[in-house]
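Lab meeting, action items carried over

1. Structure of the two-component assembly. Owner: GW. Status: complete.
Input record:
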Amino acid sequence: MELLCPAGSMPALKAAIEHGADAVYIGLKDDTNARHFAGLNFDEARLKEAARFVHQHGKKLHVAINTFAHPDNYQRWQQAVDMAAHAGADVLILADIAVLAYAAERYPKLERHLSVQASATNVAAINFYRQFGISRVVLPRVLSMQQVRAIAKSSDIDLEVFAFGSLCIMAEGRCYLSSYMTGQSPNTAGACSPAAFVNWQDNDGTLESRLNGILIDRFAPNETAGYPTLCKGRFSVGDDTYHALEEPTSLNTLDLLPQIYAEGIKSLKIEGRQRSPAYVAQITKVWRAAIDAVQSAPDHFKVQPQWQQVLAGLSEGSQTTLGAYHRKWK
Amino acid sequence: MQFSLGPVLYFWPKAQMLQFYREVADSDFDIVYLGETVCSKRRELKYEDYLALALMLREAGKQVVLSSMTLYEAPGELRELRKYVDNGEFLVEANDVGAISMLQEQSLPFVAGAAINCYNQHTLRRLVSMGLSRWVMPVELSGQWLSDVLNQSIISDIRDCFSTEVFALGHLPLAWSGRCFTARSENRSKDQCELCCIKYPAGREVSSQDGTQVFVLNGIQTQSGYRYNLVNQLSTMHNTVDIVRLSPQQTGTFDWLAKFKANLDGTAPQPLSASDSNGYWLQLAGMATG
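Predicted assembly:
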């Protein structure tokens, strides 16, 4: 079982490799990937450097080109594929049908993984994407463990699941909430609830967070204020004001690791290309230890309290959840 | 330009559905989409009931399309999808690529619904080669984006192979989750939902703490807080849009059809209410009005 870690910069990539990642995934410095944030990601020179470093350590480099190509500058997505291929990427993570087809025809030997942004939540959808020669599917975070198991049993394709990090509660790649509020979505701009639209205001100790002028949450002086990701705000429904969609919380599947391992899931993905090198280092260390433990003695796997402690400290609102993997979450 | 009636997105009781479609049969809609697109637990109407409605509407002169679900997670749901694909008579609207895969296997034509990620001319061309006969573009795209796709040279020689359709009235389907938000709003888990969404025939409104309508909860689907309304944009659609889709409203659906038809050339503009928006079409945030 592979440990696949995120990197938004060379220091983060080095931290991941040095702390035990089997592979690292990165994006290019433009809107061809779903973490298109200022100051993040890799230009061509850095991309080559990343590939060299990863390969020197005998590990693999995945490049995410997983937004949907625009009609007027489609070439940028083709160029991204070309650049990643020439720089020595081992894997492309793709979502757009046209980009998948281009990569399959142009670089048939370069491994293609289906991005979570392609939103393949069932075996029929996976079958659809097989015509583009994909070797692995990254499963959306809307599935329960039982549903993951059903896919694993009925399909021989390699599966990758999200193990830890920010939790998308909507079927990825088919969520337009961000563009509804700001005009920019993960699909078209590679960003959700973009920072450029965020505004904070302090009203006599009550902190208000807004996204493009829309009030997402209000925090009392004793509350920890979180980033206004629009699906994690407090809104009113009927007479109640609560986290109508989801609380600010992170996905943490440590408790499920033996089950995930038993289903033959090929890769565990850690979310967080936007995070710091220190974050990547700590997360990678914990998951390396956990995967080593489950692989050496799957029947005796026990979650170590210090692992949970580290992960809780790195989580949104210091909370973690099993998310949709656990049926009760739904 | 033709007018279509989208599938009913909310969970209405069977009697209300049957009454509604009797009115649809007598209406001026050219095309009718039928089927449950949101949640497989909603079974007031079963496959056979939809098929009976489809036959009745076809008798009344409508072109009928069977709409399939957007989020398929369980093997049982795929077996149900297979029935729609195998119906033998009616065109199917795919809202998940899993449906396209089944339709493609049987060389059947299909409508690619708004939840299929087709954002550019190269993807559109691929889908046409797989059997796409109608393209409903993703709701977040603009009129300019649509015309940018259609004006590409690789589309011009296949432009006769498919029609284009735009979602033009109703709360926009914006997201689908493993979680049921209507059940959550009643402190129930999805497994114990007791189909409580039947109590909300227009969904449950979600407001910000200072009173802006932000979303509408419709089971596992999250919709736009504002009603999308392109009644005043029709005159800009003539070169790019073949079919205009109205989503069934709890009341007033047929009045809106009349208003849309009257304003085809922009000669009978309609005032928008404070809870209408048209931002996406105009390259703005979806909830904005231009």
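2. GW to write a short summary for the group page. Key points so far: Chain B has one domain: 2-171+226-282. The longest strand of chain B covers residues 163-176.
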